[in-house]
């Protein structure tokens, strides 16, 4: 039980300082550690570098940290769903480092797995490769990318046990598992906090070793960024919902 | 005349094969899922971490934990599996996806693709586009043949060289526009080839609206 | 159902040829695709390069392919549990490339994930680094290792569905999930073949995209390499079983 | 006099701390698990893909799917999780394991370690040893102070430089032998220091049996 904390403020106590790097799980608003983000905002720490695929929307998720100007730099793949972000970015108040989504995911995975650098085809010949080492392997061109390791990772899971073992739900998994491995300290918020042994050990996504502190949260009504539906009488074929590629 | 968005999607669907794993981009590519032939098994990948994407949910059944890469609510199928974004892009970069269908701002005759930023405009980021074009075995672009500018003029989108920042180099295999279909020999020196005309479209019209060089081998 | 084959011979039909590279899942005798190995043996293909952490024991698992001298080279981390292996190796009939176990696992994972090369601390300053590029990142020394991609991977899972989705059981998971991603064709043998939807999609370890062919096997009595037990009246503390590091 | 294997294991167990994740090698290191203090939470990692290793099974309850890195049948605990070997070594190489306790053939005064091969003898491979010593935060070696040769002579194992092929360079933090305990400043220039003597062992005996240079700072 030594990993279980009462709430988000307690779970982040002693871990926050100005100018630190924080990884924040989630894709869009799906699987974001909303209560932990709120606690970071309440702490008032500034100059943060945030590693997150997206930057939330106005007033929700990381959008909150932008409103209070606590973020100095974002390392992301797709942003600008909120006006405050665009305002700060265009005004030069906020730095952004764009990473292809897969490169971002792999950099985080590498950081957590003791891989300081790796090669990928992604971005060769584009702005993303500028200033980076490139190299041929077996006649194909690749770019060298570096691992990422943060001071703190905050993640959201569906179920967690008091040992820190985590299980995610559906596409709310996204960046959370890699981020949990890639920081000096990882704090998890979970919708269901259970006892060790209650999660089938073959189905644990994040072993407890990666999670230093854990809290139970009541997520209430989770936010949906783009509510898309079909009518009851719609005979859309089974595979009819499109994917999205920005 | 030319093809409608739906007709372009239907043409793109002809690139599907039974057993394919496919990633569809936003816009017209999304419509392709409506044209998967009955009885053909095509599993759609969503790069945020899902294989086997189902249709949009019925009203009232939206699940905030189940979204596609466009952040839209979707549903699962019996074939569905979920995985992390790292595993998802391992799948993409590792060449396991058979086909990616996506939109574009510009395509060059050598297969270069630009579809993520316009200098001087707010840049939102490339998301997964660079990984998809670099990693997926076959990349099909579906786009309008020309760009319509604010002043009413038109600009070619099929070019000798892209002037917008690239998403990938030597990545596009096939381009489907409202006017016709082009193949591109992206890794070789075979260049670009016009292989189909849309209904009622002439070779002359295409020539007038295409800056890039191409051969004509109509099927 | 187009992925389901009747038996191991049918599942490997058309896939085998001399001098090919085959990845073979399992750690020791745990989680090895035994029936598929038997079918490779029966096919008579020769000159194989086998990527497998271990090389089986006499008459079991890959030990069978050694007996029939179908293996030209092993890429492994720990071998020699069987006499036939030692005989061929010392006699110069069998080539072996030793990889540190984690480097082997990561090379396979990289091969499947489109990463042609990566850097690791493991083996720096040792025989393993000889002839390889080394390099400093942030003051630490690393060795560059290459991704591995095979012609064929054969894996064993506990449960699989007709779409090729797989779930492994306990430590029988080991090398199977990475190998399933790192070959032109992957063939899986499963103890329980079920319909799509019967495996909870949050708990699928290998998505079906990686598995081209699948068979149901009756493993009967699985072999145990080292049977270690305690007496009923033994008051050994909970964490008393040792790990092993070769 | 000197310490027995059990006493060496008990001494090594003093390096454990509450909440530690630990990887134990074969031989004496395995015995360390018998000396985990009551009430202390120590989770054992098995590098084939398991965290939270339990004791050997009762007779008749062996499960072929549940083995440790020594390929012995074991059991699970309520805290157990399973993962792939790639994830397991990501955990190891990424520095997430607090402590590794393992055996050795030779240790040099700069922290170099040799424990995987003897030239001229059948080489079985390094298994996970190179990853463990490179990746785990703190590496403790437990070994006999000297090697007993077939001809009855003894050879030093704590050396100026290892002459056997290395498992890792600058990796060992602490060496526990049957004669005493040494610290090694593996990344700095502090060298090797004798900090404890086994019961009834003299500094002179250790000096006679140690080739490597060391300071003495007995606690």
Give a description of the structure.
The complex is a heterotetramer, with two copies of chain A (246 residues) and two copies of chain B (219 residues). Chain A has six helices and eleven strands. Chain A has a domain at 19-117 and 147-216: Glutaconate Coenzyme A-transferase, CATH 3.40.1080. Helix content of chain A is 19%, strand content 26%. In chain A, the strands form two sheets. In chain A, strands 1, 2, 3, 4, 8, 9, 10 and 11 form an eight-stranded mixed beta sheet that branches. With 246 residues, chain A is an alpha/beta fold. Mean pLDDT of chain A is 93; it is low at 238-246. Chain B is an alpha/beta fold and 219 residues long. In chain B, strands 4-3-2-1-5-8-12-13-14-15 form a ten-stranded mixed beta sheet. In chain B, strands 7-6-11 form a three-stranded mixed beta sheet, with no helix packed on it. Chain B has a two-stranded antiparallel ribbon with strand order 9-10. Chains B, D: Its EC number is 2.8.3.5. Chains B, D: One of its GO terms (molecular function) is succinyl-CoA:3-oxo-acid CoA-transferase activity. Chains B, D: This is 3-oxoacid CoA-transferase subunit B. Chains B, D: Keywords: Transferase.
Q: Which features characterize this protein?
A:
heterotetramer, A: 246 residues, alpha/beta, Glutaconate Coenzyme A-transferase, eight-stranded mixed β-sheet, three-stranded antiparallel β-sheet, disordered C terminus, B: 219 residues, ten-stranded mixed β-sheet, 15 strands
């Amino acid at each position: 039980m030594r990993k279980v904390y009462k709430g988000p403020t307690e779970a982040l106590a002693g871990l926050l300082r100005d100018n630190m790097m924080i990884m924040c799980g989630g894709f869009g608003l799906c699987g974001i550690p909303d209560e932990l983000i709120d606690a970071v905002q309440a702490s008032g720490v500034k100059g943060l570098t945030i590693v997150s695929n997206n930057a939330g929307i106005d007033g929700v998720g990381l959008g909150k940290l932008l409103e209070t100007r606590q973020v100095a730099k974002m390392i992301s793949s797709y942003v600008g769903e909120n006006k405050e972000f665009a305002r700060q970015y265009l005004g030069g108040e906020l730095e952004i480092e764009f990473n292809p989504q897969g490169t971002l995911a792999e950099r985080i995975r590498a950081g957590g797995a003791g891989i300081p650098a790796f090669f990928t085809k992604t971005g060769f010949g584009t702005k993303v490769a500028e200033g980076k080492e490139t190299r041929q392997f077996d006649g194909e061109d690749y770019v060298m990318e570096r691992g990422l390791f943060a001071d703190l990772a905050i993640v959201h899971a569906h179920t967690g046990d008091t040992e820190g073992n985590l299980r995610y739900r559906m596409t709310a998994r996204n960046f959370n598992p890699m981020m949990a491995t890639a920081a000096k300290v990882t704090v998890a918020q979970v919708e269901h906090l259970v006892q060790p042994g209650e999660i089938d050990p073959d189905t644990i996504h994040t072993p407890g070793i990666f999670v230093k502190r854990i809290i139970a949260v009541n997520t209430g009504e989770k936010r949906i960024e783009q509510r898309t539906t079909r009518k009851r009488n719609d005979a859309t074929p089974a595979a009819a919902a499109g994917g999205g590629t920005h | 005349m030319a093809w409608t968005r739906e007709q372009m999607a239907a043409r793109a669907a002809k690139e599907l094969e039974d057993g394919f794993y496919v990633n569809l981009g936003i816009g017209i590519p999304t419509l392709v899922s409506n044209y998967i032939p009955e009885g053909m098994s095509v599993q759609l990948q969503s790069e945020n971490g899902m294989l086997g994407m189902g249709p949009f949910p019925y009203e009232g059944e939206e699940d905030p934990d189940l979204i596609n890469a466009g952040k839209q609510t979707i549903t699962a199928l019996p074939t569905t599996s979920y995985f992390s974004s790292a595993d998802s892009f391992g799948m993409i970069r590792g060449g396991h996806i058979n086909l990616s269908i996506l939109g574009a701002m510009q395509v060059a005759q050598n297969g270069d693709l630009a579809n993520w930023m316009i200098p001087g405009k707010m840049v939102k980021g490339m998301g997964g586009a660079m990984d998809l074009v670099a990693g997926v075995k076959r990349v099909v672009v579906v786009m309008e043949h020309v760009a319509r500018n604010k002043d009413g003029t038109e600009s070619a989108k099929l070019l000798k060289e892209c002037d917008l920042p690239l998403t990938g180099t030597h990545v596009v295999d096939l381009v489907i526009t409202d006017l016709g279909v082009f193949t591109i020999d992206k890794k070789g020196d075979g260049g670009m080839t016009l292989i189909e005309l849309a209904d009622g479209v002439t070779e002359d019209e295409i020539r007038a609206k295409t800056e890039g060089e191409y051969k004509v081998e109509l099927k």
